[in-house]
Write a structure and sequence with these properties.
UDP N-Acetylglucosamine Acyltransferase, domain 1, Lipid_A_LpxA, single chain, globular, six-stranded parallel sheet, transferase, Transferase family hexapeptide repeat protein, Hexapep, mainly beta, Trimer_LpxA-like_sf, 135 residues, 19 strands
């Protein structure tokens, strides 16, 4: 039986330990809180301080930076990047290769398309079709 963790050196030369999430085998750093019912696919990285709620789905190759919050039943498509301190509301959908900046807020139920960029600190709300609503 193989080990259930991986040690990776960060940019400052510090060793960080990531455990493989039981539901999907994505890598979860020590200090991150991921609900057991969340799916974190292999190849995803969840940094320290991140919180992922029940029923959330984090796709392959997603990188979630420290202190971000992913709400219940949110869906983060493959290769998206969620910035430090960003918050994704419950039931929101983030598209493939989309970048959500530091401290950005995506409202509950919003639909963010593929290859989009949400600026640092931006607040975004959309309807079910992905059309942005006035803030």
């Amino acid at each position: 039986m193989g080990k259930n963790y991986v040690d990776i050196e960060n940019d400052r030369g510090e060793m960080l330990r990531y455990r493989k999430h039981v539901n999907g085998r994505g890598l979860i750093a020590n200090g991150a809180k991921v609900h057991a019912s969340a799916l974190v696919e292999a190849g995803a990285y969840v940094e320290p301080g991140v919180q992922i709620a029940a029923g959330a789905h984090v796709g392959r190759g997603v990188w979630i930076e420290p202190d971000a919050v992913i709400g219940p039943n949110a869906e983060i498509a493959p290769h998206a990047h969620i910035g430090s301190g960003a918050a994704i509301g419950g039931g929101a959908k983030i598209g493939v290769r989309t970048v959500v900046g530091r401290g950005a807020l995506v409202a509950t139920g919003s639909l963010i398309g593929d290859d989009e960029t949400i600026a640092d600190g931006e607040r975004v709300a959309t309807d079910r079709r992905g059309l942005r609503l006035a803030a």
